[in-house]
Amino acid sequence: MERTYISQLNEYIGKKVRVRGRVDTIRDQGKIIFLVLRDKSGKVQTVSWSGGNIEVFNTVKGLVPESVVDITGLVKKAKQVASGYEIEIQEIKIDSVSKTPLPIVIEQPYSKNISNLDKRIDYRWIDLRSERNSLMMSVATEMGNSFREFCINNRCIEIQAPSIIGSSSEGGSEVFEVKYFDKKAYLSQSPQLHKQMGIAADLDRVFSIGPAFRAEKSFTTRHLTEYTSFDVELGYIDSFKEVCKFEQEMIKYTLKNIKEKYGEEIKKVFDLEIKVPQGDFPYITVKDIKEKLAKAGIPSKDDGDFSPEEERAISEIMEKETGCEFVFVYDYPHKKRAFYHMKDSNKPPLALGFDLFWKGIEITSGSQREHRYENIKENAKERGISEESLNEYFEYFEYGCPPHGGFAIGTERFLMQLLDYSSILETTYSPNTPNRLGKLINIGKKETTK
User: Fold this and answer.
1) Which of 286, 307, 309, 349 has the most CB atoms less than 10 A away?
2) CB-based burial of residue 97 (10 Å sphere; 0-12 exposed, 13-18 middle, 19+ buried)?
3) pTM score > 0.85 for this model?
């Protein structure tokens, strides 16, 4: 008999079905045992009597929660059950017995997990069994699918950028060095250089989804050493604001799809209403928002960057003024941006780039790129990056390259903001951080870098 998912059982009342999943809870009332079974689609109460099949009854009696079972039985109406039905167990097979007790407490609906976060992540495969985290993974799937679908619908070509590259993709020292046979190589900080290769290859518009690596010893709620980056690059643009517009519409499309598919479940499980923005996101310059922050009494980190406190205040101020949760901040000092950002020809100290803030955190960095051969080499030189280390990259522009620009979204950070999780570790399938490689590792005292 084929398996029936629990969410489909209302179509099988009065019929025999086969359900498979985990033992969620067991209530032993002597001559009758209620076993609540859980699968990816929901939960169902099953029941066994001592006056029925005694072998089945004894098997059920010996079970422990989180064991995996295969049940065949009759779906019967049951007014006392919230769903209106239950399964009378006729056959049961134990696929796997769980060790007891569990190392962590699986999160319950409408309550905070009482297990320590580090320990929960150490036992991530158990932590992900919760209703909350299971829904989070489904939402993450829809999020990635909607990003990708929007790009394809808007004439983008998907590329697969390599994770091992011959030179640093961003410059600087925050790279993981790896041995590549007898040569030195690096784990890619982003697919940036290969996105631009796609523009030089006349693919016109490209996107990529894949791992990115940052060798930063940042112990915060928003940083990972390995994350999944969704990147877009658009050719033949006239302004970085065309890139902003593309991202804006992609986000609105994605939030609309998530709300339609999971909005009610998210409201039930997370007590959260998904807001789909209407109209355009507001824009503000770095100078102007710094002035607003100063008036609000928020201390400034420096003229070209924002502290976590400033980021939270930016969103609060702009949402109060505009009613929108999102805001594009632009006119950053070029010296604070990546070398491949184009300088503003009217204000050379400034870059033609932007950051997108959402609910107190920067979720995107983007810009119009420098596509002119001599200019991109000069930008790298100003950063102290050797020309030799980027020779292969410079070749993309030596043979002609259209004007272009793009952006990148860290998918785990986007998901964290979407569902109001408190840490990016909770929205990462198996997070790596400076003190974690799957499991927690001991590398000495934690730092508090922001």
Assistant:
1) 286
2) middle
3) yes
pLDDT class of 174 with cuts at 50, 70, 90:
confident
Is the sign of the CA dihedral 98, 100, 102, 105 positive or negative? positive
Q: Strands 326-330, 283-285: parallel, antiparallel or unpaired by DSSP?
A: parallel
107 is catalytic: no
User: Would you call 292 exposed, middle or buried from its count of C-beta atoms within 10 A (0-12, 13-18, 19+)?
Assistant: middle
Per-residue pLDDT band for 387 (boundaries 50, 70, 90) equals confident
In the set 190, 365, 367, 371, the catalytic residue is 365
**Catalytic residue check, 362:** yes
Whether 365 is a known active-site residue: answer yes
Candidates 86, 216, 247, 310; catalytic one: 216
Q: Which of 223, 337, 369, 404 is catalytic?
A: 223
Closest-CA residue to 193 (of 215, 175, 216): 175
Give the model confidence (pLDDT) of 416-442 as tens digits: 999 999 999 999 999 999 999 999 997
Query: Is 214 annotated in the active site?
Result: yes
Active site residue 223: yes
| pLDDT tens digits for range 224-257 | 999 999 999 999 999 999 999 999 999 999 999 9
- Taking the CA of residue 2 as centre, how many other CA atoms within 13 Å lie in the half-sphere pointing to its CB? 3
387 given a catalytic annotation: no
